[in-house]
Amino acid sequence: MLLRCLRSALHRLLTAAPLSYKIVLYSISRSAPPSEEVFKKLSEIVRNDGLSVLAEILHLTAYDRGLLRKVVMRSLNSILVKLEGYQLDNGLWYENVSYKFATDKGVALRLTLSILEGLLSLGVRNKSVMRAIEALLRLQKPEGYWSGLLRRHYIDYEVTARAIALLHDLMEDYRLRLGIEALRKWIFSSLSSGRCDQPWALPYVILCLVRLGHEEELKARIIDLIELVSRYQLATGDWCRGYRSFMSTFILMLALTDLLNAHEEVVRYIETLVERKRKLLRTIYDRNLLELLRHDIIREIEDAERLLPLNGVKNPKLLAAFSWAYKNSIPRKLMPKRETIELYKGYLQKYSFSSIQEHARTLAEYVVEEVAKHTDRYENLALTMRLYRLNSWNENPLALLRAALLSFPGVTSLCSDLYVLALYLMGLKGLESCSSQIQPPADSKLLIILRRLGMISTPIVVAMRNYSIIRKEVMELSKELFPRAPFLLYSLASIAKKWCLRRTRCVRVTREGLLKCPLFNICTKRRYQ
Amino acid sequence: MRKLDPLRLNIEDHEEEVIERYSTMLQKVGLSTSRPIRSLLLGLLIISLLDSNRWSWRIGGEDAVLEEYWLFVSHVGDIDQELELFSNPDYVETAIEDTNCLVRLSDDARSSFVSTIICYAEFVENLKVNKVEDYALSITSFVLEDLLCRLSPHDFKRKAHMLGRLLAASRRGDSPLEMLRLALMCFPAITHRSANLYLYYLIRVLGVWRSPSVVRELHCPLDPSLLRVLRRIGMLRVRTNRTTYQGYLYRRVQDIARTLFPEDPTKLFILRYVGDSLCRSRRPSCEDCWLFGVCEYYLKEL
Fold it and tell me: N or C: which end of chain B has fewer CB within 10 A?
């Protein structure tokens, strides 16, 4: 049972987690990432993102012996300079350094612990690290536990477990003993009652106790542990309702692996998925699926062009592309809004352009002046206006174009993704340089094939309720497989159309005989063995 | 419907008295029409912010609000002669250190308050207006051209909805007062409660730019005390105090205000005085209250 919990946590991490988590898992199984371009992408993330992302990456570095460590080591100097800027007067790290101290509920403590775990594992022991360690030890209560900075009588078990696991060599003996005792008391009372008041802390506490030699005690209560873990683990594999953090899922995975001695099982599982991803990449490149997709989409756009009234439109192909994207983004039962198509037609009657930068600028101008009168997409309207005022069409035309498109009534994220992809396939000038920002449209065709290949784990019910969750998951996957051109993942849609969505899925009956799906061997839901 | 007429009469009877009281309160800190318009606008904004957030910022009663205002403003500088000091972040931040309650604000609320004061002070520094229409137009253009790009990503995310609404309203040519209200709500710390309270003090209490057409378009500010009184007299059944601009509770209260007083919906705000002084959440003084005849709570307690 616990093994099943471990497997679902692992599957969730391998499918939906950000790139850095996947890299750490690959290095655990000693397999190389499916795409070799991830190194560059990771370096970009480490260089450009804020303190919380950096802290998360440093935290992961503590569990990594491979690529992530290499990336962090390479930009260690810049990281240390960045961290110095974020350190507060009291020695902790926190993102907002404008005021006296972090008036938070333990965020500064968590960030500091994550950063320290990473830096100490890399062997960094400079002045700011020592200051942070001193600050953490200073904040430990005489009773051995840590609490929030403002909530003094609240025992923060997550922080206590992490701090004890990290600083047990530097702590006074009696305080260490009291701290471990507090953790033991908490976890055993939770195991007895089957519920716990801070479920997010549970993986950290289990990992801390297992690594400090209390493994046997926990194994003696394995039935209660199964009940507790399966109560708080979601069907997706995520840890804890209301606190969906990949980090706690990752720690849970580590804790259960240590507790069950399931290292081989984990390695085998990761290797299988990596192999599947590799085969997927090979199929996409070998069969030249992008050309197939280009051909399909251009034909569909031409069909749409024939049906549209095009009076006075300077660029009928673009109107057809928009109409195609819009119709493909709404459910079949719904009628497309006439107003949306008319508004876009009005834009094409008024403006002409030859590059993506001009297109983004003119569309934003049109949205601010004309579409604003008809729409209720206020957030997107404000974003368009802000990006337009900041003259962002030269540096980031796709962000402006996307915000402007989403300001039209009835236009969804899927529609904007499809439209941008159509523009790329039609060869609009300037889009080649932004190809790393073109996202694969997560439509039903792509989702069905990814789900059958076991590459996404968000349940259909959740995806139907909140499209952005599944979109984000698909984006993470495409970023991992195709860092330079994430939209290439969408070329799988042509396979879905030809095989998965047919009545006889997996095979097509042709004059020459049965034609097997190119991904037949790696499909988890294949039929006709 | 039976209780509407007595309620209306009761409110109209006490209207002058309550307005006079609010006017005296503002005069205590020197906010009257004899002040230059620019410093009056800034002062009113600060006091509306403090007054509308007095529960969430734990400032306390009316006197505490006035004291807090006085401590803050006097530390920054003379609001008439040295208006430019209010757009200096260093002065504003050190002035907060001198106050009793603002100093205890969270990082987030404090930075919102500071940036609101700075941006608004910059706006009023060069302001030259005679009519409410000019004021609405100039604040709208300031928000859409200047403030929009200056907001931090965090503040922008919180205020994007209001900014979009303002842009749409300005393109559709909505009424100046609606644009003014939306433009005020685009400042980081200003909510619909603060914006409506500010307009109430400015137009209804001090009588600046007051005309029947303007007064008709004012919205009644939603205050916890007002909502409590409305609930107790049986006009409102919704339990929550959480309100969003144009949300259900907001629209419901505005409907009540417009039904009772189509010419001046802010007359309903007089009930806030009742809520503060008599109809307190604990131990209400029902015997002294002039609404006991229409109050469901009183009848139930009786």
Answer: N
Task: Note whether B247 contacts A: Cβ–Cβ < 8 A.
Answer: no
Is position A401 within any domain?
Answer: yes
Rounded to whole angstroms, the Cα distance separating B38 from A25 reads: 62
Interface ipTM > 0.95: no
Higher pLDDT, A147 or A342: A342
Q: Are A377 and A407 in contact (CB under 8 A)?
A: yes
DSSP β-ladder status, A507-510 and A513-516: antiparallel
| Structural contact between residues A162 and A203, judged by C-beta atoms closer than 8 angstroms | no
* Inter-chain touch A385–B144, beta carbons under 8 Å: yes
Find the helix or strand (DSSP H, E) in which B248 lies.
helix B248-260
- For residue range A372-401, list pLDDT tens digits in order: 999 999 999 999 999 999 988 888 899 999
Range of the domain at A324: 286-510
The tokens describing A310, both together, are 């095009």
CATH number assigned to the domain comprising residue A239: 1.50.10.20
Q: How far apart are CA B142 and CA A230, in angstroms?
A: 55
Predicted local confidence at residue B302, as pLDDT: 67
Q: Which of A95, A97, A99, A149 to mutate to test the interface with B (most CBs of B within 10 A)?
A: A99
- Judgement on whether residues A113 and A208 belong to the same structural domain of the protein: yes
Supply the pLDDT for residue A151. Answer: 63
What whole-number distance in Å separates Cα of residue B41 and Cα of residue B35? 10
Residues 6+ apart with CB under 8 A from B136: B176, B177, B179, B180, B183
* CB-closest option in A376, A379, A386 to B148: A386
Whether residue A220 sits in one domain with residue A196: yes
A509 in B contact zone (CB under 8 Å): no
d(CA A205, CA A214): 11
Domain B1-18+219-302, CATH: 1.10.1670.10
Q: Are residues A24 and A168 in the same domain?
A: yes
Q: Does B111 touch chain A (CB under 8 A)?
A: yes
Q: Let me know if residue A248 belongs to a domain.
A: yes
* β-sheet bridge partners, residue A509: A514
By three-state DSSP, how is residue A141 classified? coil
Domain-ending residue, one of A233, A257, A280: A280
**Tens digit of each residue's pLDDT (9 = 90 or more) over A207-219:** 898 888 887 888 8
Instruction: Judge: A390–B172 Cβ closer than 8 Å, yes or no.
Output: no
